[in-house]
Amino acid sequence: MIQAAKKIYEFDAKDKTMGRLSTSLVRILVGKDSASYQKNWPLDREVKVKNIAKLRFTGRKYSQKVYHHHTGYIGHLRTERLKVLFEKDPGEVFRKVLRGMLPKNKWRDRLLKRVKFV
């Protein structure tokens, strides 16, 4: 098998909606837009996203969406609003979205490492 050179894609997130941008990034990361797509072998691609803090959210998601995390102890369900998380670290929120959209297999963490925020 011939190894192709690493492709680097750059996106500007300014005034783009979170869902539309993330679906296009996942499609590129997995390699579904390529003629040499194989579902068991992702292509060597890297995605750079700039202006991540200027993303748009549709509807009332920004103020109403809640992320849950359970620590493993009884009664320790932690909840945090999207607004608070996005103000702290917009890149981490975007990684959570991408993580949920990527296939749930051994490639998911490797593909997430290929996403860079400039």
How much strand?
15-25%
CATH class of the domain at 7-58 and 90-117: Alpha Beta
Low-confidence stretches: none
The computed structural class is alpha/beta
CATH architecture of the domain at 7-58 and 90-117, please? Alpha-Beta Complex
Order of neighbouring strands in the sheet with most strands = 1-2-5
Q: N- to C-terminal separation?
A: 33 Å
Distinct helical segment count: 5
The helix/strand series, from N terminus to C terminus, equals: EHEHEEHHHE
Number of strands: 5
Instruction: Briefly note the CATH topology name of the domain at 7-58 and 90-117.
Output: Ribosomal Protein L13p, Chain: A
Rounded average pLDDT: 93
- Whole-angstrom Rg: 16 Å
Say which CATH homologous superfamily of the domain at 7-58 and 90-117 is assigned. Ribosomal protein L13
Helicity, in percent? 25-40%
Please outline the major beta sheet. Answer: 3 strands, parallel
Overall form: globular
